[in-house]
Each structure stands twice: as structure tokens, then as C-alpha cells.
Amino acid sequence: MRILAFAASLRxxxxxxxxxxxxxxxxxxxxxxxxxxxxxxxxEMPMYDGDLEARDGIPAGGxxxxxxxxxxxxxxxxxxxxxxxxxxxxxxxxxxxxxTDPIPFxxxxxxxxxxxxxxxxxxxxxxxxxxxxxxxxxHVYPEMMGLPRAHQAFDDNGSLxxxxxxxRLQRLLLSYIDFVRKLHGYS
Length: 187
What we know:
Elements lengths: L1 E6 L7 H13 L6 E5 L11 H7 L3 H12 L2 E5 L9 H10 L11 E7 L7 H13 L3 E2 L4 E3 L15 H22 L3
């Protein structure tokens, strides 16, 4: 089983980059799981513009995003929260990917996690991110995880310091992997 994992953040010191790396560390020890850890910079693309699409087609970053989604059995996305909502870069990538047929997200199981220095831990972004993904046919996993006060959550090596949070993330990821296996009929 192949899982595409990425942080929907461009900032090098992003808390969501730390969170997705922690998630990938857990996923890589799960039996039968191969992880494709992407850097969101690999998917750079202009803001969606129907005229640009008509003239030039889907940009290279969008085509790469689509290819990686198509090759994956599921996705784990760590998303920041910008002004209480989905980051524009993630929404833009979803919009570009939805312009191909079939839509690569259709039927794809997705786990949303997020980190924020605030007290809510990006949960508003998680809820807002579900909407476009579910609208285009993704199977967004019901449980999500928001990490509040992310600026205090990681040690110098980028690992979660709180054993309870780490255990919660492990349980969530293993439960999600079980969901992906069942959805695809894997044993």
C-alpha cells in the first residue's frame, strides 16, 4: 500500500512539516506501507485560471500533483490554518487537480491532520479542507487531529514531546491505514 504524505505549507520551518514527518515516521514502520513524502514545493502552480488552462493546460506542478495522487492508495495531509480556513495553496492545488478526468481524488481515502500555534490546533482548517475534497469524491477519514500550541509541541529533533499526543497520532494513523486496507480490499 502506498501513501502520499505532505504538509500543505511552503514555509521551511512549518509546524505542519514537522507533524507530517512525525506521521511518516510512524507510517513507515506499519507493515506493508510505503510512503511517498512530498514537499509541497514540488507542486507549485499558478492560481487557477480557466483561460490559462484553456491556453496551456494543467501546469507542470499540477500534473505532478495529479500523478502522485493517482499512484497512491491514500493520502495524509498536514494542513496549516490561515485566517481560520484552508490555506489558499492547498485549495488551489485541489482546484487544478479537479480539472482532469477522472478526478484523481475520487474514491481516494484521505486523512487530515494539522498544527497551529493557536489553541485550536488548525481544526477550522481541517473542517474547511474536508469540503472541497468530499465534493470531488474523496473519502475523507472521519477522525482528524489538530495539534494546538505547535510552537511548544516539538523537541529540537522535530519529534512530538508529549507521549500522549504521540500515542494519539499513532492510533489515528494505524486506524486510518486499516480503513485504507478495508476500502481497497487489502488483507
